[in-house]
Specification:
Elements: E1 8-11, H1 16-26, E2 31-34, H2 42-47, E3 50-53, E4 67-70, H3 76-79, E5 89-91, H4 97-113, H5 116-124, E6 140-144, H6 148-159, E7 163-168, E8 179-182, H7 186-189, E9 195-198, H8 212-215, E10 221-225, H9 234-243, E11 246-251, E12 271-273, H10 283-298
Parallel strand pairs: 1-2, 1-3, 3-4, 4-5, 6-7, 6-9, 7-8, 9-10, 10-11, 11-12
Helix pairs in contact: 1-10, 4-6
The chain binds glyoxylic acid.
Length: 313
């Protein structure tokens, strides 16, 4: 791993001031420049040794920085360039995202099973409708992605008595899962899934992976997407909700964010829309991840948070 000398840090995250204060308190040798991604000058990119942010400031082609630290876990926006510039290191922040996303996923699974929204609607209408809730215990959760986030989600479903199946590129065993299968087995593993959770990075392999072919195998499944909107085909999800292959969809991420006002997802029965809040990175996590990666780079070691641009995570 190259050893870039890092002094000038350009911060374009929406919490840039807080990140700059975090760095100043710990590494007074760093010079931070705070900019909004839309107000960057070409000079800013020339000045920077490293860039810290959630998504890229337009084209990276003409930039001279040697390192990008993503304040998010997903780096698809950074890698969405014709080719990642050679010799530029890309690191990311994972922090405790897995714990937060696991609570989101299990919380929504329990809410669906306990019919919290329908009972609340009945209460608003003054209606007494005694429908027995179902249980999460004894159901199967299939989780696409078995990295730190996917594993935490698997462990969360395990804790409430589910059988947990992981799906990953390699199919290697991973913590939190009773069994893990390679990605080409997704369609046949979803057959038993009550919960189909998407927690994988958006890469050329996973883009639109949940489309008509996978959804056709679902039976009364609830889809939960905490990864990226690009993992699924929205039209196929709407069809599957119509046919009953999907019993519901809990969606935190979308192709376009904020979700467009005219999207049918807002108003489709069985769909829960949340505004990309399932795994918010805290400033301290992004700051600590940056400084940890910096310490590795300064001593010529590959940071554990480094992404393989060809693989996409
Ligand atoms: C959130 O979307 C992240 O990538 O961390």
């Amino acid at each position: 791993m190259p050893n870039p000398s890092v002094r000038h840090v350009l911060i374009i995250d929406h919490r840039a001031d807080a990140l700059a204060a975090y760095f100043a308190a710990r590494r007074s040798d760093l010079v931070c420049r705070v900019r909004s991604a839309t107000a960057l000058t070409p000079g800013d990119q020339e000045w920077a040794d490293a860039v810290v942010g959630f998504s890229p400031p337009g084209s990276l082609e003409r930039s001279s920085f040697r390192w990008v630290h993503s304040t998010g876990a997903g780096v698809d926006a950074w890698l969405d360039t014709p080719s990642w510039p050679n010799g530029v290191t890309l690191t990311r922040t994972t922090g405790e995202l897995g714990v937060r996303m696991a609570e989101y996923c299990v919380g929504h699974a329990l809410a669906v099973s306990q019919r919290i929204a329908p009972f609340y609607r009945d209460q608003q209408a003054g209606q007494w409708t005694p429908v027995e809730p179902s249980t999460v215990r004894g159901t199967t959760a299939v989780v696409l992605g078995t990295g730190s986030v996917g594993s935490a989600i698997g462990a969360g479903f395990h804790a409430v008595g589910c059988r947990t199946i992981g799906i990953s590129r390699s199919g290697r065993p991973a913590s939190g899962f009773d069994a893990v299968y390679p990605v080409d087995r997704l369609a046949d593993r979803v057959v038993d899934a009550r919960w189909l959770v998407l927690a994988a990075p958006l890469t050329p392999v996973t883009r639109q992976i949940v489309g008509a072919a996978v959804l056709a195998q679902c039976r009364d499944t609830v889809l939960i997407n905490v990864a990226r909107g690009g993992l699924l085909v929205t039209a196929a999800v709407l069809d599957a909700l119509r046919t009953g292959a999907l019993a519901g969809a809990v969606l935190d991420v979308f192709d376009t964010e904020p979700l467009q006002p005219d999207s049918p997802l807002w108003r489709t029965s069985g769909v829960v829309v949340t505004p990309h809040i399932a795994g918010v990175t805290h400033v301290e996590e992004a700051g600590a991840a940056f400084l940890d990666a910096l310490a590795h780079l300064e001593s010529g070691r590959r940071p554990p948070s480094a992404v393989d641009p060809a693989r996409g995570y």
